[in-house]
Design brief:
Elements: E1 8-12, H1 18-30, E2 35-39, E3 45-47, E4 53-55, H2 60-63, E5 76-79, H3 85-90, H4 93-104, E6 108-112, H5 115-118, E7 130-131, H6 138-143, E8 147-148, E9 153-156, E10 159-162, H7 168-180, H8 182-192
Helix pairs in contact: 1-7, 7-8
């Protein structure tokens, strides 16, 4: 495994919200982003919150050891919501340490639904950042000094957050916009006929 590898990764834990994870991967790939899904266990098959099994591109063993830290906002760690998926992500000590270092170095962290409250609230220096999340998870963010907006999606520097399943496409388009720019994001949006 190339320890200097950079990239875009969507992390999947049992109980993830299928719409948020799969819509994000779909939109990113439509935008030409080489995104990989990563199971946080040793098994590539991850079961979503609604019982849908998904086979991740990589399992934990294949991902561990990769160095994804960097100052490039085009390197992104993406965390879907869903319960208990977001809680399982947030309780993975090693993954959260990587997210903290990645964010501090300038890499993009994106989280939607419950994940902003459970994952993003653990990141350093989110005071003053505009964020959104699923209703009821905003307190953990506000306790860290973040500014909760309730918008469908928010981008503030290298932090992207989304509100919930119905906002998954808007959230994903914000990630495409950050990585590939306005022209590509607008082209992908137009192709959706939304």
């Amino acid at each position: 495994m190339n320890k200097d590898m950079k990239g875009v990764f969507v992390f999947l834990a049992d109980g993830f919200e299928e719409i948020e994870a799969l819509a994000t991967v779909d939109i990113l790939r439509r935008g030409g982003v080489d995104v990989k899904t990563v199971s946080i266990t040793h098994d590539r098959t991850v079961r979503g919150a609604h019982g849908i099994p998904v086979i991740a591109d990589w399992n934990r063993d294949e991902f561990d050891g990769c160095q994804i830290l960097g100052s490039d906002p085009e390197d992104a760690m993406i965390f879907p919501g869903g319960l208990p998926g977001a809680k399982n992500l947030a309780e993975d000590y090693y993954l959260m340490e990587q997210a903290k270092e990645h964010f501090s170095a300038g890499g993009t962290v994106a989280a939607i639904c419950a994940a902003p409250g459970l994952v993003v609230s653990q990141l350093p220096d989110i005071e003053g950042k505009k964020v959104t999340c699923y209703d009821g998870f905003e307190e953990a963010l506000m306790n860290e000094g973040a500014e909760y907006t309730g918008e469908p999606a928010e981008t503030d520097g290298n932090l992207i957050t989304g509100r919930g399943p119905g906002c998954a496409v808007r959230f994903a388009l914000e990630i495409v916009r950050k990585i590939k720019g306005d022209e590509v994001a607008d082209r992908v949006f137009a192709g959706l006929l939304a």
